[in-house]
Design brief:
Strand content: 5-15%
Organism: Pygoscelis adeliae (Adelie penguin)
CATH architecture: Alpha-Beta Horseshoe
Protein name: Acidic leucine-rich nuclear phosphoprotein 32-related protein 2
Keywords: Leucine-rich repeat, Repeat
InterPro entries: LRR_dom_sf
Radius of gyration: 23 Å
CATH class: Alpha Beta
Length: 223
């Protein structure tokens, strides 16, 4: 049996009539768009379509104000299930409006590249369980203090030095291939001298030694 809310399953909160909820009042809004009219027809769900009236410029502007992403300071946009390209494009459209966000969670969204995005005030960013392969694919975050990248596919530490001039204090790289690189912790801390914690472990004295200091231990004499 269908639930009473079934007829609203493809609608965003700002498309539902007679309410005044704004985007920055939601803790974890679902922002992915629903299927197109053509897709609904092939699914046999054309009954879910509402009669669509001509949307005026005034109504478009009112919807934009209702979303109110520009004033969001803390936002959780995790688990969006971005299955189609148009959904991902809408998702990135919203991310571009987060000019004041300070804490942002984007966990498990199958993201691969946000390098065109700039988050000027972001101090805490969680992009765990995505598909990033390089630090170069991350957004520009000049004020970042806490960055979590666990369970991605970052192969090397190339590009990590781009964060050298940020106030980054805590970095999580657990369950990335780069974690198995020889002298991994020393390489990270030598690239980021201001870093205080890596993978939940505070900076240790042995983390401060240059990465090449034990190179001679790998040498052997063949007689």
């Amino acid at each position: 049996f269908k639930l009473p809310s079934d007829s609203f399953k493809y609608l965003g909160w700002c498309d539902i009539e007679e309410h005044d909820v704004r985007g920055n009042q939601l803790h974890c809004p679902r922002v992915r768009e629903g299927p197109s009219e053509e897709e609904l027809f092939f699914r046999g769900e054309e009954h879910t379509l509402k009669k669509r009236k001509q949307v005026t410029d005034t109504e478009k502007w009112q919807k934009k104000l209702q979303e109110n992403w520009e004033n969001s300071a803390e936002l959780n946009l995790s688990f969006q299930d971005l299955g189609d390209l148009y959904q991902l494009e809408n998702f990135k459209r919203i991310l571009q409006r987060l000019i004041r966000v300070e804490k942002l969670w984007l966990v498990d969204n199958s993201l691969t590249d946000l390098s065109a995005l700039r988050l000027p005030r972001c101090r805490e960013l969680n992009v765990n369980k995505n598909h990033f392969t390089s630090f170069k694919q991350l957004p520009k975050i000049p004020q970042i203090q806490h960055l979590s990248l666990a369970e991605n596919n970052i192969m090397t530490l190339s590009g990590i030095s781009d964060f050298r001039h940020t106030p980054l204090e805590s970095l999580i790289l657990k369950r990335n291939p780069c974690e198995f690189q020889e002298r991994y912790r020393q390489l990270v801390f030598s690239s980021l001298p201001n870093l205080k914690m890596l993978d939940g472990i505070p900076k240790l004295p042995e983390d401060c030694s240059p990465p090449h200091i034990r190179a001679f231990f790998k040498m052997c004499t063949i007689l």
